[in-house]
């Protein structure tokens, strides 16, 4: 644990809280991609297979439970909540996310740190998380206008990965045997996908204007 990882965890947690606030306070999921939320549910379920076998710390266990529980709750609300599901932008959220799942799993079988059940699913979760935001970004581009809470959700989600890159750099220089190169490369890819969004987010913040993405 270091300050960069803690900051990453907290911004990740804030992004989830912002999304939950949007859904529960407004009873709307407009502007939110169900496909992305389903991918994140896959990510956390695959990554935390060791939840009940390997205890690291109370903090670690609680964060795992929060990420799994919140992702499943968001998917449930968007699919089955009587009011919330009516606002789902089904016509805009058409990204074929199952392709990302298949390609990520295939890559995990071919490129992993150890050919074992847990390590393959860990690598799968890392690869899938790197591209899980794509359906969300495509949906926002198609809709054009981005509401405040949806914009903040994506911003904090991107900031979380940026902090984790700093965490990996810090660990590389302070730990003797840091070798999570799969996380590093995937994290760089994931952060790069946010570059366009960050640019327009900064422009809207600077001009005190509503966030708009080019179609």
UniProtKB/TrEMBL annotation:
Q: Which PROSITE patterns match?
A: ER_LUMEN_RECEPTOR_2
Going by the entry's taxonomy, the superkingdom of the source organism is recorded as Eukaryota
Q: Which GO terms describe its biological process?
A: protein retention in ER lumen; protein transport; vesicle-mediated transport
Cellular component GO terms held in the UniProt record: endoplasmic reticulum membrane
The UniProt entry lists membrane topology as: Multi-pass membrane protein
* GO molecular-function term, one example from the UniProt record: ER retention sequence binding
UniProt-annotated location(s) = Endoplasmic reticulum membrane
Q: Which key words tag this protein in UniProt?
A: Endoplasmic reticulum, ER-Golgi transport, Membrane, Protein transport, Receptor, Transmembrane, Transmembrane helix, Transport
Respond yes or no to whether keyword Transmembrane is given for this record: yes
According to the record, the segments passing through the membrane are 55-77, 98-115, 121-141, 153-173, 179-202
Q: Does the keyword Phosphoprotein apply?
A: no
Report the family membership: Belongs to the ERD2 family.
> What is the protein name stated in its UniProt record?
ER lumen protein-retaining receptor
Species, as recorded: Sesamum alatum
């Amino acid at each position: 644990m270091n300050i960069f990882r803690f900051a990453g965890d907290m911004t990740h947690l804030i992004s989830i809280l912002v999304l939950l606030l949007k859904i529960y306070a407004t009873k709307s999921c407009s502007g939110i991609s169900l496909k992305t939320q389903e991918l994140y549910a896959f990510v956390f379920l695959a990554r935390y297979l060791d939840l009940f076998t390997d205890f690291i710390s109370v903090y670690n266990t609680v964060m795992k439970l929060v990420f799994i529980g919140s992702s499943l709750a968001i998917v449930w609300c968007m699919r089955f909540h009587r009011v919330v599901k009516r606002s789902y932008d089904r016509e805009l959220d058409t990204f074929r996310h199952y392709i990302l799942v298949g390609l990520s799993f295939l890559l995990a079988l071919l490129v992993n740190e150890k050919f074992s059940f847990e390590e393959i699913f860990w690598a799968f979760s890392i690869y899938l998380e790197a591209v899980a935001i794509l359906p969300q970004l495509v949906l926002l581009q198609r809709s054009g206008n981005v509401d405040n809470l949806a914009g903040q959700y994506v911003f904090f989600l991107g900031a979380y990965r940026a902090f984790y890159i700093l965490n990996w750099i810090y660990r590389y220089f302070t730990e003797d045997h840091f070798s999570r190169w799969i996380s590093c490369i995937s994290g760089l890819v994931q952060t790069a996908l946010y570059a366009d969004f960050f640019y327009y987010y900064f422009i809207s913040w600077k001009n005190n204007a509503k966030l708009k993405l080019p179609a």
